[in-house]
């Protein structure tokens, strides 16, 4: 009896590539390129970055503009992400059960500590923040949502990394780079691994002016029902607001809330 061919409904891992639509993949690559440049990209820059011909690039760009996934701005012109992506992003967040569960935890955490709290999901070892709750009367911190952040320079990122093997941490940092954001940023894998060992021991990570001067973040990981790190929650505050010894008590409270979120996701460890 001959072996049955894979079907589109249940393609095995080895044959997933055969169902990739090249034009769709190229259009998504263009969106990814533009998402990483705040000022947008010109047709020439997109053509160079994508490796496509100018005509092929322009056809894809015009299609994305017509559908609202890109917008055309002056001076070039240059192309930026369009409002259709904003609407889709909002819908995607609404469809994530994690967002609802995390929102409840963040509200309670911000009320208890009077600090801004955030939740990030883990994506390729990097934190992607999906929600934020500002504490009463606190400084408002600008937090872009839906964007991969540096894992080595954020407490949420370090909380996520603390749950991974050292070799995986090194590989992630080699991929992302370790650029100094401030004079306090950890920029070597060796120093980061030391910091992560302390985070594992405590159950939370501290980012002390490593991403922005005068700002401190404390983050703790949460886990899915399989015991795999799914992300982290964190709080942000001005360094002058707390004594250094108070960081540890803040971390304990953040860790308790992260544990609560883990239980809501079905983790029993």
From TrEMBL:
Isomerase keyword on record: no
Domain of life: Bacteria
General function of this protein: May be an activator protein for the gylABX operon.
Record domain IclR-ED: where: 84-267
Gene Ontology process terms (BP): glycerol metabolic process; negative regulation of DNA-templated transcription
Pfam family for this entry, one: IclR_C
One GO MF term: DNA-binding transcription factor activity
Keyword check for Transcription regulation: yes
Name of the featured protein: Glycerol operon regulatory protein
Domain HTH iclR-type: 21-83
Keywords per UniProt: DNA-binding, Glycerol metabolism, Transcription, Transcription regulation
PROSITE patterns on file: HTH_ICLR, ICLR_ED
Originating organism: Alpinimonas psychrophila
């Amino acid at each position: 009896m001959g072996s049955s061919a894979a079907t589109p409904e249940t393609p095995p891992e080895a044959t997933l590539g055969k169902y990739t639509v090249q034009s769709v993949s190229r259009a998504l690559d263009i969106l990814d390129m533009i998402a990483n440049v705040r000022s947008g990209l010109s047709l020439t820059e997109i053509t160079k970055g994508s490796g496509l011909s100018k005509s092929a690039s322009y056809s894809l760009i015009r299609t994305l503009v017509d559908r609202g996934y890109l917008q055309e701005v002056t001076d070039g012109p240059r192309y930026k992400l369009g409002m259709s992506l904003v609407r889709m992003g909002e819908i995607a967040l609404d469809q994530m059960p994690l967002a609802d569960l995390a929102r409840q935890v963040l509200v309670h955490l911000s009320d208890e500590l009077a600090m801004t709290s955030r939740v990030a999901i883990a994506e390729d070892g990097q934190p992607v923040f999906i929600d934020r709750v500002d504490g009463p009367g606190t400084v408002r911190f600008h937090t872009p949502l839906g964007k991969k952040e540096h894992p080595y320079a954020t407490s949420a990122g370090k909380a996520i990394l603390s749950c991974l093997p050292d070799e995986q941490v090194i590989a992630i940092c080699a991929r992302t780079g370790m650029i100094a954001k401030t004079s306090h940023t950890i920029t070597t894998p060796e120093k980061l691994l030391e910091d992560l060992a302390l985070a594992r021991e405590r159950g939370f990570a501290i980012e002390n002016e490593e991403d922005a001067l005068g700002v401190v973040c404390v983050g703790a990981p949460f886990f899915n029902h399989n015991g795999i790190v799914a992300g982290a929650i964190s709080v942000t505050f001005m360094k002058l607001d707390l004594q250094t010894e108070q960081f540890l008590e803040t971390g304990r409270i953040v860790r308790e809330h992260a544990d609560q979120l883990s239980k809501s996701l079905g983790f029993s460890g």
